[in-house]
Design a protein that fits this description.
This protein is mostly beta strands. It is built from no helices and five strands.
């Protein structure tokens, strides 16, 4: 996947949940779903779900906002 166009990484609270997003995992961008967001001391973080490289049905993890981009069209 190429790098997403929309890099609105400074805030996640404006997205209506669940939101289709692009997430950066190990340097590669992939599609996923933002299911929650939280402003922590270290900044905005999002709880995302995605299918991992082993093909597991679902991986859920918190990522910093810099690793999350809204999907084109707001998803």
């Amino acid at each position: 996947m190429t790098e997403p166009v929309d890099h609105d990484t400074y805030r996640l609270d404006h997205l209506q949940l669940p939101a289709h997003v692009h997430i950066r995992i190990h340097g590669d961008w992939r599609s996923g779903w933002l299911i929650a967001s939280d402003h922590q001391l270290s900044g905005w973080h999002g709880l995302v779900q995605y299918q991992d490289e082993e093909g597991q049905p679902e991986t859920t993890t918190w990522l910093p906002a810099e690793e999350i981009a809204a999907a084109v069209g707001g998803g």
